[in-house]
Amino acid sequence: MGIRDIKEYINSKRELVNAFLDSYFTPPIKPIKLNDAMVYSLMAGGKRLRPILCIASYEACGGKAEEIVSYASALEFIHTYSLIHDDLPAMDNDDLRRGRLTNHKVYGEGMAILAGDGLLTEAFAILSTTDHCSESGFMPPSSSLLRIINSVAKAAGLHGMVAGQAQDLLSEDLAPEEQTLAFIHSHKTAALIGVSVKMGAMLADAPEEAIIKLTGYGANIGLAFQVVDDVLDLTESTETLGKPSGSDERKKKMTYPSLYGIQESKKRAESLISSALACLEGFDDKAWALRDIAAYMLNRKN
Amino acid sequence: MGIRDIKEYINSKRELVNAFLDSYFTPPIKPIKLNDAMVYSLMAGGKRLRPILCIASYEACGGKAEEIVSYASALEFIHTYSLIHDDLPAMDNDDLRRGRLTNHKVYGEGMAILAGDGLLTEAFAILSTTDHCSESGFMPPSSSLLRIINSVAKAAGLHGMVAGQAQDLLSEDLAPEEQTLAFIHSHKTAALIGVSVKMGAMLADAPEEAIIKLTGYGANIGLAFQVVDDVLDLTESTETLGKPSGSDERKKKMTYPSLYGIQESKKRAESLISSALACLEGFDDKAWALRDIAAYMLNRKN
User: Fold this and answer.
1) Closest chain A residue to the Cα of B86, Cα to Cα
2) What counts of helices (H) and strands (E) characterise chain A?
3) Which residues in chain B are contacts of A155 at CB distance < 8 A?
4) ipTM computed for the complex
5) Closest approach of chain A CAs to the CA of B8, in angstroms?
6) How far is CA A289 from CA A5, A194, B127, B233, in A?
7) Chain B 188-247, CB below 8 Å of chain A: which residues?
8) What is the pLDDT of residues B281-295, one digit of tens each?
9) Residue A5 burial (CB < 10 Å; 0-12/13-18/19+)?
10) Per-residue pLDDT averaged across B13-35, rounded?
11) Is domain B6-298 in CATH 1.10.600.10, yes or no?
């Protein structure tokens, strides 16, 4: 069965993704400063959660990780763009991310905006490329790739992340309120994490029923991720987080703990993880990594 | 043969595009402020040059405009996003666009950045949608749409617009220099205009030779457009332009006139238009609009 330790699994898939990302800008694109700004944030030590979830989902459907690393990595382009834009002074105005200066602090606001724009656009170039898998002999059908691009665009854009970030921006300083909080969390973070899992199943050309189940797993785990994130911001140190702890509170962000308290939020995360696991019923042992990632997510510290 | 006046042709195709764009956000997406910010710039009276060129190219290859309005309009989403981001204080810092306040002046910088992000992402959702043409019974092959998405992503991103805008930003205050100027113009403006024409041919599933010729037409006309734009900034009034005239000079932008002078720039634009027309050799009368648009572009005032 190969490696069964989830930490080793995550590390080995992260290596695959990092190798792809690392080689992507070799040779660099012009102008070099734009290239460097993108690489700076792309290679800043991210967890690669979205690509890893995509790969684990693909493997749960019987595929081999190596076949889809490029497509999975496109999700990290989108995630990185969102971090660069979120950190801008006009948005969350953060100076620190993963223990390093944020993109605009190093490259200036204009270049940071363009680095984000470039990463987002290039993600769709990667998802629509049909020849970079020729080494492995694997080639998803054009119709699957089109459906994937459509799902990813919706989850990253107006039916997901961009809408969630806009609502987040509009809700600062407002009293926490259940419906708005649910909208922000499901759109800002859960949508892209959810589509990462769905995408793995679509790349595997899995039966519709399996795609629906894995989409359910993804939606629950995506929401759980954000609830845990909110709690960690209050309970962990700046050092552990790699960004200032307690910053949600200072910025008067609408979060789960601000509405329900820390204990209730933890319970909510646990319940979401249970729901995620329930969606995997009927999947065989090839879904072990998806199962173990769910538990792992609950116990993460940053 | 229908309408043969190019102004009427442009107006009628613009109406088609405007009708699609106008209905796109009905019902509006949430949050409503994000919706309004996008609509504000999308419906600000743009020329719709890119969608019209796409449609004219599609018609030159034997298609009917109505079949591809949605795909063509996606180009206007991308163009509008680029204007919103370019106008930001960290970029060109413009207060006025098409005679109205720029997006961030009305909605704030954070919302303007998100409106741009949302429009860009939604463009790829539109290009990957396969069911909105069912009314006309037209449906491009999945493989064509994938190729189109790939070409558009490259032209809008790191092999085109984003790279050009980054170089433009880096070149302010520098002495004009031939190679850099050529890079900026071919990437910042010409790439997206060029791919608009190419896309029309690809939607029509035209023979590779026709796609290559129309790509050549697009590249030349795209470059001509930017050279004319540089000249107009110096020779037309703020009122005619809908934005402050002479602003390139004030911002010390690297432009054609700054390097070659106005007269030489006009000659260069004429020569590019001739090259564009030469690419249409072998096309029959269905390419009349593409031919007339080339001449029209040379004589535009804004």
Assistant:
1) A110
2) 16, 2
3) none
4) 0.96
5) 34
6) 9, 16, 34, 59
7) none
8) 999 999 999 999 999
9) exposed
10) 97
11) yes
Among residues 112-141 of chain A, which lie with CB inside 8 Å of chain B? 112-114, 116-118, 120-122, 124-125, 127-130, 141
CA distance A76 to A189: 13
Which of the residues A85, A109, A128 would you substitute to probe the B interface, choosing the one with the greatest number of B C-beta atoms within 10 Å?
A: A128
At A139 the three-state DSSP class reads coil
> What whole-number distance in Å separates Cα of residue B119 and Cα of residue A49?
26
| A70 in B contact zone (CB under 8 Å) | no
**Nearest neighbour of A121 by CB, restricted to B113, B157, B167:** B157
* B267 token code pair: 């000659």
Strand partners of residue A101: A96
CB contact under 8 Å between A113 and B122, yes or no, is: no
Apex CA A105: angle with CA B252 and CA A52, to 5°?
Answer: 120
Cβ within 8 Å, pair A149-B122: no
**Which tens digit of pLDDT belongs to each residue from B231-283?**
999 998 888 877 778 888 888 888 999 999 999 999 999 999 999 999 999 99
**What does each C-alpha distance from A183 to A189, A212, B27, B68 come to in angstroms?**
10, 21, 18, 34
Residue spans of the domains in chain B: they are: 6-298
d(CA B69, CA B65): 6
Q: How many A/B residue pairs have CB atoms within 8 Å?
A: 157
Distances (CA, A) of B166 to A36, B58, B110, B185: 12, 31, 20, 12
Report whether the peptide linkage leading into residue B28 is cis, meaning its omega lies within 30 degrees of zero: no
Pairwise CB contact (< 8 Å): B117 & A120: yes
Residue B54's nearest CA partner among B217, B176, B284 is B217
Contact assignment for B85 to A34 by CB distance below 8 Å:
no
**Are A90 and B113 spatial neighbours (Cβ–Cβ below 8 Å)?**
yes
Angle (CA) A63-A67-A69 rounded to 5° is 110
Residue corresponding to tokens 């981001």:
B85
**Cis ω before B141 (30° cut-off from 0):** no
User: Residue A114 and residue B169: Cβ atoms within 8 Å?
Assistant: yes
Measured between its terminal Cα atoms, the distance across chain A in Å is 29
